[in-house]
Amino acid sequence: MKALVLIGGFGTRLRPVTYTVPKQLIPIAGKPMLYHVLDLLPPDVEEVVLATGYKADLIDAYVRAHPPRWPVRTVSEAEPLGTGGGMKNAGDGMSDPFYLLNSDVIASVDLRALAERQHDRGGIGTMTLAEVEDTKPYGVAALGEGDRITEFVEKPEPENAPSHWINAGIAVWQREVLDAIPAGRAVSFEKEVVPGLLPRGLYGFRLTGYWDDAGTPERLLRSQRLLFEGGRGGKGTVPTGSFGTGPIAVLPGATVRGASFGRFVTVGAGAVVDSGAYVENSILMDGAHVDRDATVSGCLLGPRSRVHPGHRITGVVLGEHGEA
Ligand code: GDD
Ligand code: MG
User: Fold this and answer.
1) Is 88 a catalytic site residue?
2) Which of 160, 164, 150 is nearest to 207 (CA)?
3) Architecture of domain 235-318
4) CATH number of the domain at 2-11+22-213, please?
5) CA of 209 to the centre of ligand 2 (A)
6) Average pLDDT of 200-215?
7) What percent of the chain has a predicted confidence (pLDDT) above 90?
8) What does DSSP say about strands 98-102 and 2-6: parallel, antiparallel, or unpaired?
9) What pLDDT does residue 259 have?
């Protein structure tokens, strides 16, 4: 099977960081969001097609420098085509069926079992579903007999949500789904196409492990915690010469001597946490600098941003070169 990964979108909810870095390259628990998504793919996947748009050059460069285990091809959009338009644009030569993955979700899910379910039940596709309290930011499914999806509403008002089971952004589709997407214009797959596919048999695959969409600062940090707790953040040990509980992920070229750490931190490549500083539940991107005796909690610090000596910040997002 092949996989199509949707990587367009402006990441507006993660600005100002996403003014200069696409959200898929933000490191969570030690590696970019995109690579946690790719980690879900079985080793025998034949090819991964990345449907890119916004900052496609940065994605390309990163993937070239850090080649995943599968052959990768990128197909980029000159203008954002939406999820459906992106699928249509990049869908030539897809396998039948194929995996479709959003690039901003973290999940514990067995994709082989998902493909088997699609094979056994037939129909046009099988969509993994996560159960969440607040369904508003998601696509919501009503389930009938044998978990057949009987209704699908994208981002409904709470009173119109048919259940708490939402599209987890990880699915298997038969190739014919691409024929149902209008060509040559932006299309929201979830809003404009999925409801019309229900008569052809769309089934739900209920997730039992963790799941989150990492598309807002709050959910990004929650995703990082889930990844560390799920053992996907590496060893997590605080390096010699620094202190605290961890788990943390320290990328090559970072300096953390004399600093201390609480739980769930990524220290990006070349980032610095000076002596006497304390960091917890945060992501420090490449070259971010937390100066001596500063305290950082629940923050996303963009590349080469700086927290000044002794400053204490909570819940702050700094863009590239931002200061606090
Ligand atoms: N190629 C391409 N072109 N990809 C795009 C575009 C585009 O114009 N716009 C968005 N994407 C990518 C994003 O990078 C992301 O990986 C995925 O498509 C979904 O877009 P989001 O903007 O993150 O959508 P969402 O989070 O509001 O909703 C989607 O994901 C939810 C689960 O996280 C929908 O699929 C919902 O139904 C779903 O519940
Ligand atoms: Mg999203």
Assistant:
1) no
2) 164
3) 3 Solenoid (2.160)
4) 3.90.550.10
5) 18
6) 96
7) 98
8) parallel
9) 98
